[in-house]
Design goal:
2 copies of one chain form a homodimer. Chain A is of the alpha/beta class. Helix content of chain A is 42%, strand content 17%. Chain A has 12 helices and 14 strands. In chain A, the strands form 3 sheets. A 6-stranded parallel sheet of chain A has the order 2-1-5-6-7-13, with helices on both faces. At the A-B interface, α4, α5, β2, β3 and α6 of A face α4, α5, β2, β3 and α6 of B. Chain A binds a DNA duplex through α2 and α4.
DNA sequence: TTGAGAAAATAAAACCTTTTCTCATATCCC
DNA sequence: GGGATATGAGAAAAGGTTTTATTTTCTCAA
């Protein structure tokens, strides 16, 4: 009962080629037949077979997603999954669908790039903090349109939050409130975002004439709660006077930071103010509700989508290489 | 520079058919040539074109995911995204990949079923609380292998948490602790899970000789924080004596419940104990840390994957129609 | 009426596999 | 040694589109 384009052609006394042109191409066909065919096609609900189309046309309307090993969070990662959701929504409006890139097909193993070629994906979105995988480097340097979120590389178009802006806002706020002993807890610096936030933190201190003190800073050995907790412990141990402000470079870290502070008899925000980074959806439900830097996941996802579609459609010239999405400081209860 | 199976055949002095058989089929070919070809193929990194393969073989090794409109959460939904992650991990081990089903291809709109046919997906996973969409019903009643999580329908294989077990454990615990005025806050009953939890709650009360009191129960008008908050308010207003236990049928609701309780001068857990449902990853970081029913997302995702692959591979007989995954009670600080 | 040129439609090749059927060769048994 | 059977490999069709080159049809001016 499944119809082919050939059947449709027969039923309409036309050739398959004409039907094809009407459905997808833009060759010469009269307005009259075009409308007639469109009407009929809609009526019988005909849709051209996808694999045959891809085979011949070498275009799939499929976008590959590299979404791997993000701190072993995968799809559950609150930031990346949100970005992906908005990316998905955006591209679907333009008839694209998304599929996760894997490194095998059936029994055969292959590189990401090879996979993309074999699948004829039109482009890829790279969502990962992990920059140094040969698989990804190969992909980025290929001719496949690619956009990344949160990962900066030569010749790779990227959308990121304006980390510098966020850090500056947080530090400015602390200064404004008269806080003196500003400290910071970063995630592993192998991640670009953390690295950049640390740089910005140094810079922002400098702006206010404060010198960066090693003992008020600690790099967590892991991303989550434990990382934040242990890093804070280290700061407390290494400093005569406890800090009165700690900038946690992610909300997850912040939870650990606060817990550690409290375990050491310090009250948040009375004794020390804490600011996180992300504004994950649980931030507002913590006690105290977490002050944090809001990252606009929707803007990021959509900007990445737009850029990727632009590249695919050949509008290369108008694409700026790295786009920074503004962030904003949200003050809740974890700061004075 | 891209090689076809025809090129490979030529280079090895064989026919394309033979190469194909070696790579994927299982026809008659001698061990010697098989090994020779396999070696060469690996060496040059040849992989057969996907669309041509799908076109001819009518099998795609692609699994469609219906993942729509879950309370407008999408991929960010902590429960479903986790289940999906584990599903994905499992099927990838067997050479399958996943793609999100959408309701259009390029410019053309189509039903989920049509989409699956056109794309030749081998099976679908339905991840949604929303049962009554014609699109989904049509899909379920088709000949496409389907498995769902959290959605029970005739002739649909399903994997769910053992909601009854969870509720019973929670109620048992409350009774054991001597709590007397047990109340419950449910999410919208249009969702099967909530409906079943409510049934179980009634039953569990009965088991202990307690009658279900309408004024100690409230159905939230939405899924999240606000839903829980307002539902609790209603209970407080409708009852002479405040409950000393409230079973929130999700962690998200529980946050609202606790907030409302506290806003009304009731201390958790001193005055009233609260138990949630899910054990989302933020549950342990709330204050007080939330006691809750742990749902095993990994077991659910993997069971669903296994079932789907079984159906696809024709092992229909050995499939039980609805599989309930055990849950467990986790006591933290929100209960006495 | 004719013919040039534009517009519309067609025919057929190409895209790259898989699979069925057939053929050739090797193996076996009496 | 000869017929029967197994085994390995190939030829060719089929799968359903898109696209290029070609033909047919139409329009309009001379």
């Amino acid at each position: 009962m499944k119809r082919t384009i050939y059947d449709v052609a027969k039923e309409m006394n036309l050739s398959p080629g004409t039907i094809s042109k009407i459905l997808h191409g833009n060759g010469n066909v009269s307005q009259a037949t075009r409308e007639r065919v469109l009407k009929y096609v809609k009526e019988i609900g005909f849709v051209a077979d996808s694999s045959a189309r891809i085979l011949k046309a070498k275009k799939s309307y499929v976008l590959g997603i590299v979404f791997s090993d993000i701190a072993h969070f995968g799809l559950e990662h609150p930031f990346f999954s949100s970005v992906l959701q908005h990316f998905k929504n955006y591209v679907e409006r333009f008839g694209y669908e998304i599929v996760f890139i894997v490194n095998r097909i059936g029994e055969q193993e292959l590189s990401y790039l090879k996979w993309c070629k074999v699948k004829k994906v039109d482009g890829v979105l790279i969502v990962t903090g992990n920059i140094n995988k040969p698989n990804i480097i190969e992909l980025v340097n290929s001719d496949i349109p690619a956009v990344s979120v949160d990962m900066v590389m030569d010749n790779l178009v990227t959308v990121i939050s304006d980390d510098g802006m966020g850090i500056e806002q947080g530090v400015d706020y602390a200064i404004e409130k008269g806080l003196k002993r500003l400290s910071a807890v970063s995630g592993p610096l192998t991640s670009r975002a953390y690295f950049e936030r640390l740089e910005a933190f140094r810079w922002a201190l400098g702006k206010h004439g404060i010198s960066f003190k090693e003992n008020y800073y600690s790099e967590a050995e892991s991303y989550g709660f434990n990382g934040g907790y242990n890093a804070t412990k280290k700061i407390l141990e290494n400093s005569e006077k406890a800090p009165d402000f700690v900038f946690a470079f992610s909300d997850e870290l912040a939870i650990g930071v606060i817990k550690c502070l409290e375990d050491n008899g310090l009250r948040v925000p009375l004794d020390v103010s804490v600011i996180g980074f992300d504004d994950n959806y649980f931030a507002k439900h913590l006690t105290p509700a977490l002050s944090t830097i809001y990252q606009d996941k929707q803007a990021i996802g959509e900007a990445a989508a737009k850029k990727l579609l632009d590249i695919i459609e050949g509008k290369k010239e108008k694409i700026v290489k790295v786009e920074k999405i503004p962030v904003s400081l949200i003050i809740r209860e974890s700061t004075i």
